[in-house]
Every structure is written in structure tokens, then in C-alpha cells.
Amino acid sequence: MSSLLIASNNPGKRSEFQDLLDGLSIKLIEPAVIGIDLHVEESGEDYAANATLKARAFARSSGFYTLADDSGLEVEVLHGAPGKHSARIAGPGRSDADRRRYLLDLLQSHPRPWRARFFCALALAAPEGSIDITTGICPGEIIPDERGRGGFGYDPIFLVRGTDQTMAELSVRQKNRISHRANALREMLPILIQRLGVSS
Fold this sequence. Notes:
The protein is α/β, with parallel strands linked by helices. 31% of the residues lie in helices and 24% in strands. It is globular.
């Protein structure tokens, strides 16, 4: 079985990746499990650049192929904000709930619908530094009231286009069919299979 390091200790992301890679002979590893504690400054000009910075740093430190993502919520009326600053929009040390409230405060002066999309860039780094990039999106809109208990981040206020459910109301299986991260990983799968030499 091949090992793949996930450049995040976020249990929600690991769960998503685990479900999406189910059936492949790939063992997912978290940095904390192998004693790696890196803080990589996300100074890239876009999602792909940030994902690349993280993937390369963790691959170099661990010696494992590493998968990193950089994701963001882009709201049309805010000209794409918060974008790559989605995790830091309300300031350092704030919770997901704080960030949701901050975003809703920003939107109060704008008429609905608040069209939005989640965007994800995935970077797969080899230990020697080579990179593969894929991207995925999930369109929808922001709603003013939180709904659902699943997911994380902005999921409770993100109504998925073509459904009457927020991302947080979807089952794991449903989310992993349509999410931005799922779509990016779906594009990455044939690359993972080739790079890690695993069977599909």
C-alpha cells in the first residue's frame, strides 16, 4: 500500500479525502502522526500557488508524496472575496462561526441572492519537488441563516446550486459527489494512480 501525506491536520478535510480515495490502496497520513509541525505562509498569488507552497514544504520534510489544497469561498457581489483569505477573513484566532457571522455582516447591505462558489486547487508534490495541479468548483449562494450540522467552514450558509440543501445538510456521500474538493480530487485521481503506482 502506498502512503500519501495530507498537508493538513484538519479532520474534516482528511475525512473527505479518505472517503474520496476509498477503494484505492493508498494510506493517508496526517502530519501530526509522523511528528511534522510546519507552518507554511500562504503568500502565493492564487490558490494553486498556495497549494504548491504547502505541498512542496511537507513533501520535502516528510519524504512522502504530499497532497495539499487551497480552497476559498468567492462571493459575486463582493467581487470574489473572501477568496483565498476565506480562512482569515475575520482575523487571527477566529472560529468558523465567527467567519460566517463576519461574512453575513458584510453582505447585509447587498440585495439577495448572494451568488457564490467554492473553489479548490489541489497540488500533489513529489519529495523531489515536482508538482501536479488540478482544480474544482461548486456553485451556489450564501443564505442568511445557518442550516445543517455537517461539514465545516462556510458549509452551513452555502446553499448548493440545484438543491434545496446547504453543504452542511448533505450527507458525506452526497457532498463528496459535488463539492469543489471532490471535483478537484476527481481530476487528480488518474495522476495519483500513476505517480503512486497504485491500482484503481
